[in-house]
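Hi P.,

Sorry for the delay on this. The queue was packed all week, but I finally got your sequence through. Input first:
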Amino acid sequence: MEFSNCLIDWYLKNKRDLPWRKTTDPYKIWLSEIMLQQTRVAQGLPYYIRFTEQYPAVEDLANAHEDEVLKLWQGLGYYSRARNLHATAKKVAFELNGKFPDTYKELLKLKGIGDYTASAIASISFGEGQPVVDGNVYRVLARYFGVHTSINSSLGVKYFKELAHEVKHEKQIAIYNQAIMEFGANQCKPQSPDCKVCPLKGSCAALAKDEVKLLPVKIKKTKITKRYFNYIVFVDVNGNTLLQRRTKKGIWYNLYEFPLIETVTPVKNKSVLLEESYLQDHHVVSMELFHKGDIIHKLSHQHLYTKFWIVHLHGNLPNGISFARVKEYAVPVLVANFIEEFGF
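Then the structure:
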């Protein structure tokens, strides 16, 4: 109890003023938790505000078109979160009469909701005694209790969940969960935490053993794949270009992009691309690189080495999109940055 009380005391003095902390509405708690997965608060906050303004209730989100949701999400990354968000909104609005399940077990049945998000909603909105375990919580628990079990092993996931249950604050579960997450984000930080001012310094195992930098333990499993993207940015005589929707499951599914030629090795000469039947179908006047080198876009499991080729055409593009309309489409941030730089 000393551990949980100490965290709550610290939280009440140091918590950030965030909009989702002023409500127990499960819709808004759910929205914030989905947005903050793999995302810093500073980046996620503007999106949360935009979403709650445009979709103040789950029914509003459910009735939106997916393209509209993806466009509003643009730049936040991990777009499967947005698609799952939309699917779950429809489930809650149309099949559950607009009411979120009020138990951890039932929340887990919704698309895109795992252990952490279900625990957060169940505890904050409904007071169920489910402790949250995310990256911040792993770090606090591993350091304070001196746990060397890997946090991304099956044994570690089970152990830390059990430990979280043992040390939670039974009577103030909602505020305790927010406290331990905030503590991990702002006090027990991944790099260079200020242990001198930590309220737990007197009983922290990692500090006592000089193991703060060593914990938590995480096994490196991710193998990075290199991919080579060549975007064909058509420009016809009337100021039109082409965008196409990604229909293949995987990164950026259902988002728009310029026509793409993916190669197994980097393209060093445009003649290689000009031999592609796709380009031979058009009357190409000129083809030049927009940037001198590759734009390297790093995702969790792959690095994209990307070139944007500006291709001027003789004549008009069938089904072309005017430059003025390009920004209306939901695109990956990599493409959005190019659109901005090119000046569409």
